[in-house]
Amino acid sequence: MKVVTSATDLNAISPARPRVLVPTMGALHDGHLALVKRARELAGTDGEVMLTLFVNPTQFNNPSDLENYPRTMDRDLKLCKEHGVDLVFAPEADSMYQPDHSVNIIESSLSKRLCGATRPGHFEGVCTVVLKLFNLTRSDIAVFGKKDFQQLAIIRRMVRDLNVPITIEGVDTIRESSGLAMSSRNTRLSEKQHADAPRIRRALLAAQDLHAQGEHDPEKLLACAREEIEASTEGAKIDYLELLDAESLQPLEKVTRPAVIATAVFYGEVRLIDNIELG
Ligand code: AMP
């Protein structure tokens, strides 16, 4: 396995074979490894799996979240090696952004709500870095998790609208046995918060069950989910909880089309996200 740490060095290596990219911010867990597994399948024996480890500063709107984001480079490299990654790109921030960097990608529809509304500038940072990684790595396919439902939708839209020559593949959310979606931020939860946090999943499943029983009113479905989250004994605080059209990410008056309920919940300073699809 090769490790490259600067954009210039990466540019010098042209892909000799089909390349499948897995962009991450590191602190790898089984969710990331499911993406690597899918990438390995898509690359086949002839192709190459490339994983990027980069805690992108421009997508953090909260300096303390950036500062406290877990960084476990040695362990990450070991996991990459064990899981068949061929090439790791782990750039320093100053090799990715020029001091007078002035061009950014702005998605202006799907990013209006959810994380886009509560984390101003987040998706501008994400789109910009992801497009830079697509350009730098010249990958054929890129694999993303459905845990970040809105991110995946926005990246698909960027690729469509800017004719980026890459195929995007989505992978289902990997969960702990409790149902809690795996996240690098889970390591920052206290033991009690960690035990309480699976209620996020239970809340979304309860709303999904209610929908399956014939309830189509978004307010009632959201109230059902909200009740479970607000019963938290660890002071879970809802950042957002919304039911949206799964494609346009716009609110629905009635759930008559495929929809998604997405939520972000704070446990102290730690913000966790999850979502569930309806219909
Ligand atoms: P991150 O390192 O959190 O930026 O995530 C890198 C990629 O891994 C993104 O495409 C995420 O959607 C994906 N990912 C993170 N957690 C999970 C999970 N629990 N299951 C599946 N994919 C995930």
UniProtKB/TrEMBL annotation:
InterPro entries: Pantoate_ligase, Pantoate_ligase_C, Rossmann-like_a/b/a_fold. The active site is at H32. ATP binds at residues 25-32, 145-148, 174, 182-185. It is found in: Cytoplasm. It catalyses: (R)-pantoate + beta-alanine + ATP = (R)-pantothenate + AMP + diphosphate + H(+). This is Pantothenate synthetase. (R)-pantoate binds at Q59, Q151. It comes from Oceaniferula spumae. Catalyzes the condensation of pantoate with beta-alanine in an ATP-dependent reaction via a pantoyl-adenylate intermediate. One of its GO terms (cellular component) is cytosol. Belongs to the pantothenate synthetase family. SUPFAM superfamilies: Nucleotidylyl transferase. Pathway: Cofactor biosynthesis; (R)-pantothenate biosynthesis; (R)-pantothenate from (R)-pantoate and beta-alanine: step 1/1. Homodimer. The keyword Chloroplast does not apply. GO terms for molecular function: ATP binding; pantoate-beta-alanine ligase activity. The keyword Acetylation does not apply. HAMAP family: PanC. One of its GO terms (biological process) is pantothenate biosynthetic process. The lineage of its organism: Bacteria, Pseudomonadati, Verrucomicrobiota, Verrucomicrobiia, Verrucomicrobiales. Its EC number is 6.3.2.1.
